[in-house]
Every structure is written in structure tokens, then in C-alpha cells.
TrEMBL record:
Residues 131-184 form the Sigma 54 modulation/S30EA ribosomal protein C-terminal domain. This is Ribosome hibernation promoting factor. It comes from Tropicimonas sediminicola. The keyword Zinc does not apply. The gene is hpf. GO terms for cellular component: cytosolic small ribosomal subunit. Its main location: cytoplasm.
Length: 192
């Protein structure tokens, strides 16, 4: 498995790097078959260290977790525990979907934009245009999944919403977490 371990405006020592590779490798090996790579980012906000980890699995799914603590090792340990819990919880589902799937998850490229938030004082003035200001533009990937796989991917990634391309269809679908805790699924009709 490939590791990308970095610090955002902090130095990461060799000892922490070895600790991350050992502990994360053991946690993932118990519950996931053939993980391809892991990205771990450390940062500091105020008095807390923050650790964010994303593991890419050979099935095409991603698992994400984050943790925070006053010490950097404790922040990683918190993240590792959350990652292990997610993978343990979804081990059976991951194996079941992997058995059904003959090919890896197919992904399609798409553009992703970050729009500027409106200022509080902007409500007093009329905007010059209805077009929002784009702050950043980047590439994103839209996976081709079944609805069950999309829900599992959304939960593994800890995301509130996931856009996916259903297998065998031409449209894009959306699954999202509702305020009542249930999962919503938007399946637009192919009829126009």
C-alpha cells in the first residue's frame, strides 16, 4: 500500500510517519482486502492537532475519517480508531459488493466549483449580477455504482451527499442524508 503522509504547516517526523504506517496498515489489513493507497494529513488549529485520513480500496470505494486531540499521536490514534470502526462495520457489505462486481468501479471526470459566500452586508445592496463568483475550479470524479454501493460510499466517506452514475443508465443520481437520519435518493427520469 502506498502512503502519503504530510503536515499542513507543521513538520512530520520519521517516528510519526513510521507509527502511522504501522498502525494504519494493521487496522486496514484486518478489514479490507487490497487497499491501494492512503493519504494522511496532519494540521494544527489552536491548541488541537487534527488528523484526516482517506484510504482508497481496490473496489473503488474510499473510507475517510478524522480526529482531533491536544497531542499529535492521540489525534492519529482517534482517526485510526474511527477508520477501523467504519471498516469493521462495513466489512460484510464490502465483501458482498466486491463478489458481485467483476470490474473495478468506473469513474467519470467532471468539473467541481467552489462559489464565494455572500457577505452579510450584501443583503443591503442589490447584486450587480445573478452569476456567483467562482473562487476555485477543480477536477472531480463521479463513480459508476449501484444505489447500495453509493449509500455505502457516502457513509464510508462521511459525506452528506454523493452524486453517482447508476450502472446501466445514462442519467446522474444523488443519494443524501436527510435531517431525520434516513437516506434520500434522487433518480431523475430518463423521459424528457
Amino acid at each position: 500500500m502506498r502512503y502519503q503522509i504530510s503536515g499542513h504547516q507543521i513538520d512530520i517526523g520519521e517516528s510519526l510517519t513510521n507509527h502511522v504506517k504501522t498502525e494504519l496498515g494493521e487496522a486496514i489489513a484486518k478489514y479490507a482486502e487490497r487497499p491501494t493507497d492512503a493519504q494522511v494529513i496532519f494540521s494544527k488549529r489552536g491548541h488541537e492537532f487534527i488528523c484526516e485520513a482517506t484510504v482508497h480500496l481496490s473496489t473503488g470505494l474510499n473510507a475517510s475519517a478524522s480526529g482531533r486531540a491536544p497531542e499529535i499521536y492521540a489525534a492519529f490514534d482517534d482517526t485510526c480508531e474511527k477508520m477501523e470502526k467504519q471498516l469493521r462495520r462495513y466489512k460484510r457489505r464490502l465483501k458482498d459488493h466486491y463478489r458481485d462486481r467483476k470490474e473495478p468501479v468506473e469513474v467519470f471526470g467532471a468539473a467541481s466549483y467552489i462559489l464565494a459566500a455572500s457577505d452579510d452586508g450584501a443583503d443591503e445592496q442589490e447584486p450587480d449580477t445573478l452569476q456567483p463568483m467562482i473562487i476555485a475550479e477543480m477536477e472531480t470524479r463521479i463513480p459508476s455504482l449501484s444505489v447500495g454501493e453509493a449509500v455505502m460510499q457516502m457513509e464510508l466517506a462521511g459525506a452528506p451527499v454523493l452524486i453517482f452514475h447508476p450502472e446501466g443508465k445514462t442519467s446522474l443520481n444523488v443519494v443524501y442524508r436527510r435531517d431525520d437520519g434516513n437516506i434520500g435518493w434522487i433518480d431523475p427520469s430518463d423521459k424528457a
